[in-house]
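Researcher: We're reviewing a set of sequences before deciding which ones to prioritize for further study. For each one, I'd like a predicted 3D structure that I can look through quickly. This is Gnk2-homologous domain-containing protein. If possible, include the structure in C-alpha cell form so it fits the rest of the review sheet.
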Amino acid sequence: MDSSRLLILFSVSILLGLLAPAVAQVNDAVCTYTDDICRRCSYIGTYEDGGAYQKNLNTLLSSFSSNNQTNSGFYNSSMGQEPDKVNAIALCRGDVSLNDCHTCVNQSSSILFTYCSNQDEAIVWGVFCMVRYSSKLIFGTQEDEPSEYVPSPFNAIDPEEFDLVLNLFLDTLTEKAASGDSLKKFAAGHVIIQGSTTTQPIYALVQCTPDLGKQNCSDCLKGAISKIPECCGGKQGGRVLKASCNLRFDTNLFYNFTADSLVTLPGMVKLNGCLHYN
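Model: Here's the predicted structure for Gnk2-homologous domain-containing protein, in C-alpha cell form for your review sheet.
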C-alpha cells in the first residue's frame, strides 16, 4: 500500500474518531447524580419536521401538561393514525403537587424536543416526573428498557450493614407500591440503622406506572433492586430508572416530608457485629 493511500486511511480514521463522540453526545443518555434530568433517545425510527407524527407528539404532550382532570399525576394516551400514531406516558412522583407535576412534564417535553428531535421514541426521567413517548404500544406492559443507574459519589459508613437493611427496606416498599390502585403505585418512607458507633437513616421511594398490574409492578421493582449491587452497592444513595418503574434512596430526605413515615422492617438481630434475620 503506497504512502498516499495510508495517509487517506489515517485521515478518515481520525475524522471518524472525532465525529463519533459528537453524535453520541447528542443522543446517548445524559445522567449524573447531581443532574435533575436524565434522558435517553432511541433509534427505532425517525419522523420529519412538520410532519404528522411531530404534530401529534406536540399536541399529545401539551395536553398532559395542561390536564387538570386528574390529580393522580399519571397520564397515558395516544394520538393519530398509523403510521403516525404516537403513544405517550407521563408519570409524576407520587408526592408532588399538581402544579409541580405539570411544570416537570412541560420542561421534560421541551428537553425531548431539543435533544431527541426527530426520534420516534424517547424518555426523560426528572426528579419530579418521567415522560416517555413511542411509535410502538407502551401501555400496560412491563418494560425494563430503556434504563439508567445513577450511584451517589459517597460511600455508606458501614456498606455491608447499609446494603442489608436497604434490600429489606426496598422489598417492604415494593410490596406496598405494587398493592396500589390503577391511579397510583407509589411508596416512600425511612428506616433507621442502629449501628454500633452511629445511627443513620435511609430514605427511599419506589414507584411504578399504575397501568401495570400488581405482579408486573412487583417484578419491575424487584428487578430494579437486583441492579443495586452492581450500580450502587455500598453507596449512601442511588437511583435506578426504568421505563416502567423507578426507585431512589439516600441518607438525606429528598421527597416531600408529608409522604414520609417510619417503616417497620421484619425483626433483625445483630450477632458478632453482623445483622441477622430472626
